[in-house]
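Co-fold these.
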Amino acid sequence: MAFLKNNPILIAFIILVIGCGLYLTLNVVSWDFALPLRTRKLVAFLVVGYAVGVSTLLFQTLTHNPILTPSLLGFDALYVLIQSLMLFFLGMVSYTTMPAVGKFAFEVMVMMAMSVAMFRFLLTKHNQDLTRLILVGVIFGILFRSLSYMVARMISPDDFVTVQAHSYASFTAVNVNLLITSMVLSALSFVYIWRHRFALDVLMLGRNCAISLGVPYRTLSLGILMTIALLVSMATALVGPITFFGLLVCALTNRFCTKMAHGERLILVSLVASSTLIVGQAVFEHVFKVAGVLEVIIELFGGVAFLLLIFTQYGKQRTMQ
Amino acid sequence: MSTSTAQTVFWRLPMVVNIGAMLILLVLIAVSISVGVANFSWARLLDDADGSLQLLLTSRLPRTLALMLTGASMAIAGMMMQVVLKNRFVEPSMVGATQSAVLGILLTSLYLPTLPLLGKMGVATVMAFLGMAVFMQLIKRLPATDFLIIPLVGIVFGGIIDSATLFIAYQTEMVQMLSVWRFGDFSSVLAGRYETLWLVGGLSALAYIMADRLTIIGLGDGIAKNLGVNKEAVMWLAIGMVAMISSVVVVTVGAISFVGLVVPNIVSRLVGDRLRVSLPAVAILGSSCVLFCDIIGRVIRYPFEIPVYVVFGVLGSALFLWLLSRAK
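Predicted complex below.
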């Protein structure tokens, strides 16, 4: 028991391996058909788990706060809006015939620029007051989402449902066109983050400490923010926006991790997020054969986790006073 | 001439605001009746050669009335919620009321499908009331100093109920049906399918009768006690009315967020917080806002319609951000 407690990564890894086995083999009717399809989806879940977990963890390091996440501040709703606007200006026909990778590259570039603008706006203007910051972020998310619906309806009132589909999260209908691209980008981003893992540990001490200890603060923060924008775009392009997923897996990771070092937490958060998706989908997609349920359950538990975090924070503040 | 300038302003300004808002509302009503895919001409109303009168009575007028009743009552429900919680940034969809009403109507459709419409609304009202009661218990633990935490917790609380509702809907294959209640849309309003909204019109009138007591409980617990107003009774009555308004609107046309948040804030800036004076303005402006957004939704992509909840989602959240930037 003590050994397991001290090795959360090992436990998460075992769960992930079991989950992968279950996902690939449960209730298979025709192996030739099911296996390639399931393998593609499995890889997508691994990529999404890595992207959501790591981007949220980095964001919390950057903002020195265990409650803030990119999704909560409307970042993935922003990506969906960029997608919708591109669709609007290019038109349905040219959008669907364009190469997926080129389209994605352009969307990510726009997303990076917008993320920096958004981050600057939110964290300089509302930096003093955490509650205000989160509330403004949440409302921005609602605004972006409403704008996306509006754009979707403007493009094609007849079949807006198909256009609107990418503004909802779906683990059952994974967009597999970008799989190779996202795998390459995951690997590259991981190399970058892994090389800076110790600098990230120093970053957690706060801006002034990090600068005195010789961390190139501005360059590193900007690099990390760009990486977050890339990862959020990737996850959203694959499965759509999920508000509380990152918050949930980061809360679990911080709860079970033995050290605060990024080396350990980055690995663990990726494993936790991927296992959540894969075990969850194995159960709902292959055992109960229902679509759309895991997304809803993650939002439900994530919302509860958020409220718990808020209430415990206030409890702490009260005991301090 | 013995009245001070402050008093003159106090009485004049609401009059001006109300008359101005009323004129705008009349214009919007006329536009709302004229706009649509079918041909409609005011001149032909009397001889009715082209079916204009028929169109007016079965479709255009019901829709316009439904929009007005919904706008007025949701705005008033928002105002009542803001007074009860002494917080400028709440509305029925941010205290769990709207989402609980949706859950209630879903459950009645599943387990009591034979219940008449009013019975279903009753169950939805009870659910909305329970949802708000839970929320009130929840925020008791939060510090009163941080007034933005309440809308934030309220939004997430509503989201949790919404997720639970969606989960049940997926299990029972009711997702399509659910979107009728979750997303406000007036495109299918016809004579005979909106009349339940007159109930919320009645509730809005009741709110006006209660106006002074509401104003007093909004001033604080000590003052309410001194003036002999039973705070608890007025508060729970107001919460019950908000539950009922939210439920009737959800069941009849679907939920619209931000009406109850934005409108009372604007009125409060214009005419202050004395509800006897400001409630009529809230009702008129609420009607105007929802009418305006519905008209935009009808003309922006003519001949197709964009549902009013989408238009209001954009304008309402933008206005909310503006209000937040002005808040101290």
